[in-house]
């Protein structure tokens, strides 16, 4: 394999792993995909270490005489992450087709670029609407009445839409959830003042459920059990920071209401 071809293969494997990691893929899945892609093109030695913020790959390929060639190492820094499991599934399917069907590097890179540029499966309006549905039906488990059901539905649509817009503008995760928590508390207080039968507590609980980092918590536990301690602790830390941001936003607004408005 020529030097240029080896580098192109590494770039392709790194790009595939980047797409998966940026869209909520598990650490073990990203490492397995990178290893599978590289070994399908004859790399004898492949090692990859994946964390939520970076991908590290080292490979070695023997030359035509069978002697060990030079080591190649690539590093990719991951700064922004989101949840789009459809892209993860597409890259996973691509890696299997790349191995089984013998796609060329040009075809493989073209497919990956199409996956990266593919639009989200749902529009931000659909995400906001079903965020409201999720929130309103969740608080029914807490004994909510019809007014609280409608309040949580309407308020959560607004909260979900806002945090989606902030995410599109590449705001930091802490800032997004801080604003989301503060907005959730403000809307719940406003709705609670409109009718005495609307419980502010229930509405707030329903609103913040759409911001709970469920995927980060699940992946963190899964990675820790699998022995990927760095990744597991990093994801757990990310989930903790998000929870703190939500709590701070909600608590700040509630304390302002208590101080200035005499709220209970």
Automatic annotation (TrEMBL):
The keyword Translocase does not apply. Keywords: Cell membrane, Membrane, Transmembrane, Transmembrane helix. Belongs to the ThrE exporter (TC 2.A.79) family. It is found in: Cell membrane. The keyword Transmembrane helix applies. It is a multi-pass membrane protein. GO terms for biological process: succinate transport. GO terms for cellular component: plasma membrane. Residues 12-256 form the Threonine/serine exporter-like N-terminal domain. This is Threonine/serine exporter family protein. Its main location: membrane.
């Amino acid at each position: 394999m020529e030097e240029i071809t080896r580098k192109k293969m590494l770039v392709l494997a790194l790009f595939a792993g980047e797409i998966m990691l940026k869209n909520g893929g598990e650490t073990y899945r990203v490492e397995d995909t990178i290893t599978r892609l590289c070994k399908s093109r004859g790399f004898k030695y492949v090692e990859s270490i994946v964390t939520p913020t970076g991908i590290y790959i080292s490979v070695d390929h023997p030359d035509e005489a069978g002697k060990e060639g030079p080591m190649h190492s690539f590093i990719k820094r991951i700064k922004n992450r989101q949840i789009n499991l459809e892209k993860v599934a597409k890259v996973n399917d691509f890696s299997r087709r790349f191995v089984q069907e013998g796609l060329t590097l040009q075809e493989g890179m073209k497919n990956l670029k199409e996956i990266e540029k593919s639009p989200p499966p749902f529009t931000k309006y659909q995400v906001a609407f079903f965020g409201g549905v999720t929130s309103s039906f969740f608080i029914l488990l807490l004994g909510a009445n019809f007014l609280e059901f409608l309040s949580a539905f309407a308020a959560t649509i607004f909260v979900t839409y806002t945090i989606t817009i902030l995410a599109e503008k590449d705001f930091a995760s802490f800032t997004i959830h801080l604003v989301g928590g503060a907005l959730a508390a403000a809307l719940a207080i406003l709705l609670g003042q409109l009718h005495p039968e609307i419980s502010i507590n229930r509405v707030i609980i329903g609103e913040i459920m759409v911001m709970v980092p469920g995927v980060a918590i699940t992946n963190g536990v899964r990675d820790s059990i699998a022995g990927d301690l760095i990744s597991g602790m990093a994801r757990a830390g990310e989930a903790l920071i998000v929870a703190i941001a939500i709590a701070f936003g909600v608590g700040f607004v509630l304390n302002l209401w208590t101080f200035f408005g005499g709220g209970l």
